[in-house]
Design a protein that fits this description.
203 residues; alpha/beta; Rossmann fold; seven-stranded mixed β-sheet; two-stranded antiparallel sheet; 6 helices; 9 strands; 25% strand; binds 5-O-phosphono-beta-D-ribofuranosylamine
């Protein structure tokens, strides 16, 4: 069974969608540990509620970023985590961490990458005036919101959308494609070739 470790800084609705997919038997994987850099993250409560190990790793408790990341790696290793899931994790990971889990870290971003990287992607989409927005699940490389794209979903932008209304419609799609992308990984259907993800047909 695929062992997951989830890193989350906030409310954890994407974490919840993964928990739900596992519970429903749609995703054959197990969330071994949820780690947060924020003691008050709702994600930690969600984990605890579902008897998943919940760990706070506070960056302020370490002298430097490397020690902080090593503490996270130690928790992941202790749990034999194979795939690291970033679900609203607000810290940028260093090349050391990325290399340690090379091609084994996924992230979700609320835009159709490569458009609108970084914070407030939904507001960026509104400001630009795009007619179609969406979300992207991708493998993490050393850039910010870059790396081979696994799945995307499009959402129509409405004339009267606000950041909140657009974000909430995109979020619904996030909750659908994140578990789906992890499922593809769990089934061994993802292959990275020349910086692109190929989804293999059923084995
Ligand atoms: C989501 O919009 C996700 O795309 C972005 O951060 C947000 C996390 O939301 N990376 P949640 O904590 O999963 O509810």
């Amino acid at each position: 069974m695929l062992k997951l470790g989830v890193l989350a800084s906030g409310r954890g609705t994407n974490l919840q969608s993964i928990i739900d997919a596992v519970k429903a038997g749609e995703l054959e994987a197990e969330i071994e540990v949820v780690i947060s850099d924020n003691q008050d993250a709702q994600a930690l409560e969600r984990a605890a509620k579902h008897q998943i190990e919940a760990r706070y790793v506070g960056p302020g408790n370490y002298d430097n970023i490397q020690d902080f990341e090593q503490a996270i790696i130690d928790q992941l290793e202790r749990n034999d985590v194979e795939l690291v899931i970033l679900a609203g994790f607000m810290k940028l990971l260093s090349p050391y961490f990325i290399e340690y889990y090379q091609s084994r870290i996924m992230n979700i971003h609320p835009s159709l990458l490569p458009a609108f990287k970084g914070l407030h992607a939904q507001q960026q989409a509104l400001d630009y005036g795009v007619k179609v927005a969406g979300c992207t699940v991708h493998f993490v490389d050393q850039g910010m919101d870059t790396g081979p794209i696994i799945l995307q979903a499009a959402v129509e932008v409405k004339e009267d959308d606000t950041e909140e209304s657009l974000a909430s419609r995109i979020l619904e799609e996030e909750h659908r494609i994140y578990p789906a992308a992890i499922k593809l990984y769990a089934e061994g259907k993802l292959e990275i070739e020349g910086g692109k993800v190929k989804i293999k047909e059923s084995l």
